[in-house]
């Protein structure tokens, strides 16, 4: 895959004269340029890599609604100057508009990516793949399959945002008539069937695994394509797109309905696709990462720390040795400096390089279970009412909390994924240069005099919580950064298992098979199975026994397991739960207070604004003017 990046810029230059910003792209008149681009195998491969370009750019999670609008994180929006494009983070405050949409993936503005332009490249690849005379039949077959997958994925990304979209199966010629150019949006069912059809064409001709990771890691495989197919069908079966009453009368200008009535069989199709993907993945050795492979200098790990690192490295471990990673974006994810609190004096002196901006609201921290494996508000042994009262760290909890440090009850007796995912005041932090489990860093976050506390406006975590999970434990910040990079997953085995459990529950309600796949994921976190945990510890012990109850459990399980991975925002949309999640202010601690009694007083850090219309993106007003056949999404 490293070779891919080497050629992307060159291939992109070949396309400059052929690009079009709008939803419709036409075949350019400079055919000679295309002939050059496909004159031999090497040049054609460069063009294939250019088709991957848009998908690699998705590795910037700040461009992903699944990340920025998930409510898992907040970013300070009042900085004099921002180190990143914060458009995605501002959308949660109600700034989205049709005049100049944020994260506009239709036209490629507002920090979005021009997906129709990416689709056009794929069509051009398919139209010209026969030109290189030195291209082997095997390579040709694989490249066609890869291109069809990418074309399907780009349509899928648009579908998740806009719902009914125009399908661009072929590039229109320059002599296309005005009527041909003014394409229409096609119904949800037509779009999904088209995407799934392309994936079905691609899957048989994709490799089962990558044989040369040094050159090809990141290129799509058969297990990855099957997992994405499962996710597409899960999205289509979910409440946002399956019989959504909010869109019951949504039609195009000819009167054609763009959303259909509820169809229960869509869940069965999704369940079948999930099981087929699981079978394919497991056949090539993919499985949950249940072991921690320590760096050479790691010492004195307790069983609690090992459990924590098993989970954390299922995300941050090098892809070529990560048994759980079905598919990731091979481009390096950049953002660890926003996740790691300052924990040394040198880090404090060099805080420009370590602003630690990504702030986790209190509501996200409360998603994670107690150590009994049930929600903290349901656990009859967890003092939920007094969870924000002070408590001092002790030897029994030294793997998680600094002994002698005053923090709060909510930070004690939590599941291992809480400690692997969240950095908090008084919390132990394994790594960042200290690999001795008996002598770890810990976070001091109270007041401006503390190492991790607020400094200037530009160097402040506004809630007092950090997304520890998306910082590699080997990355060090002291007198500058020493990076250990990783790629952000698109799909892990745990996510696929939970998709299957969700589909099974929607088809048949609670079944032994559904519980078995949830329990695999929980076991890796050191938790008992769902039925056992709820029967022993929950105030609502019968909850897993109904479809509605198990649905709620599975949804929370996905939000915990995939937290900060750019997944929850998409899930909350397809479930139609985003509006309820964003119905209350997002809160953090009183970070400027240096005394614990004052610090642990919750205050509002952001007021979300989310209406029913926000489930689908607006098409820009300009695009509607250019193409009179397009209709706007409801309420925009």
Automatic annotation (TrEMBL):
Domain called SusD-like N-terminal: residue spans: 114-231
Does Amino-acid biosynthesis appear among the keywords? no
Matches recorded under InterPro entries: SusD-like_N, SusD_RagB_dom, TPR-like_helical_dom_sf
Compartment list: Cell outer membrane
Does this UniProt record's set of keywords contain Acetylation?
no
Q: Which family does it belong to?
A: Belongs to the SusD family.
Spell out the protein name for this chain.
Starch-binding associating with outer membrane
Tell me what organism the protein belongs to.
Answer: Mucilaginibacter pocheonensis
Organism classification:
Bacteria, Pseudomonadati, Bacteroidota, Sphingobacteriia, Sphingobacteriales
């Amino acid at each position: 895959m490293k070779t891919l990046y080497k050629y992307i810029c060159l291939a992109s230059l070949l396309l400059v004269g052929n690009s079009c910003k709008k939803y419709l792209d036409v075949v350019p008149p400079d055919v000679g340029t295309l002939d050059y681009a496909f004159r031999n195998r090497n040049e054609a491969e460069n063009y294939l890599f250019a088709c991957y370009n848009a998908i690699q750019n998705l590795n910037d999670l700040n461009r992903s609604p699944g990340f920025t609008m998930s409510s898992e994180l907040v970013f300070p929006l009042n900085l004099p100057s921002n180190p990143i494009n914060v458009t995605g983070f501002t959308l949660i405050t109600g700034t989205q508009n049709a005049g100049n949409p944020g994260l506009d993936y239709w036209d490629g503005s507002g920090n979005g990516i021009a997906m129709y332009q990416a689709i056009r490249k794929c069509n051009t690849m398919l139209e010209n793949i026969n030109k290189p005379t030195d291209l082997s039949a095997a390579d040709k077959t694989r490249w066609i399959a890869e291109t069809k997958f990418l074309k399907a994925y780009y349509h899928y990304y648009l579908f998740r945002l806009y719902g009914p979209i125009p399908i661009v199966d072929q590039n229109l010629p320059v002599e296309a008539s005005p009527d041909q150019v003014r394409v229409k949006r096609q119904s949800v069912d037509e779009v999904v069937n088209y995407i799934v059809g392309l994936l079905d064409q691609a899957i048989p001709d994709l490799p089962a695994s990558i044989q040369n990771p040094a050159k090809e890691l990141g290129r799509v495989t058969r297990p990855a394509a099957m997992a994405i197919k499962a996710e597409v069908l899960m999205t289509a079966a979910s409440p946002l797109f399956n019989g959504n009453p909010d869109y019951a009368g949504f039609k195009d200008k000819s009167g054609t309905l763009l959303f259909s009535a509820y169809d229960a069989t869509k869940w069965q199709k999704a369940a079948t696709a999930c099981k087929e993907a699981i079978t394919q993945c497991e056949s090539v050795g993919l499985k949950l990462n249940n072991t921690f492979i320590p760096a050479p200098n790691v010492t004195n790990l307790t069983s609690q720390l090992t459990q924590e690192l098993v989970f954390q490295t299922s995300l941050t471990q090098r892809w070529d040795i990560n048994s759980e990673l079905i598919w990731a974006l091979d481009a390096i994810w950049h953002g660890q400096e926003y996740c790691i609190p300052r924990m040394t004096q040198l880090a404090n002196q060099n805080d420009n390089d370590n602003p630690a901006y990504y702030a986790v609201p209190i509501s996200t921290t409360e998603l994670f279970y107690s150590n009994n494996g049930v929600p903290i508000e349901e656990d009859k042994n967890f003092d939920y009412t007094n969870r924000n009262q002070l408590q001092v760290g002790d030897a029994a909890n030294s793997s998680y909390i600094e002994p002698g440090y005053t923090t709060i009850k909510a930070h004690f007796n939590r599941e291992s994924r809480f400690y692997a995912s969240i950095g908090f005041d008084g919390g132990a932090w394994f790594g960042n240069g200290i690999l001795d489990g008996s002598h770890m860093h810990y976070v001091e976050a109270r007041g401006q005099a503390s190492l991790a506390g607020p400094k200037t406006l530009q160097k402040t975590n506004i809630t007092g919580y950090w997304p520890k999970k998306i910082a590699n434990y080997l990355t060090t910040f002291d007198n500058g950064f020493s990076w250990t990079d990783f790629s952000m997953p698109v799909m892990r085995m745990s996510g696929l298992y939970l998709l299957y459990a969700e589909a099974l529950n929607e088809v048949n309600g609670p079944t032994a098979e559904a519980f078995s796949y949830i329990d695999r994921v929980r076991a890796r976190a050191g938790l008992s199975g769902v039925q056992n945990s709820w029967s022993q510890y929950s105030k609502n012990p019968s909850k897993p026994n109904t479809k509605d109850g198990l649905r709620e459990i599975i949804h929370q399980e996905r939000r915990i397991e995939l937290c900060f991975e750019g997944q929850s925002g998409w899930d909350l949309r397809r479930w139609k739960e985003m509006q309820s999640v964003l119905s209350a202010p997002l809160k953090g601690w009183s970070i400027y207070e240096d005394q614990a009694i004052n610090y642990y007083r919750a205050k509002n850090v952001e007021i979300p604004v989310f209406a029913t219309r926000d489930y689908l993106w607006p098409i820009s007003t300009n695009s509607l003017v250019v193409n009179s056949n397009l209709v706007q999404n409801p309420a925009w």
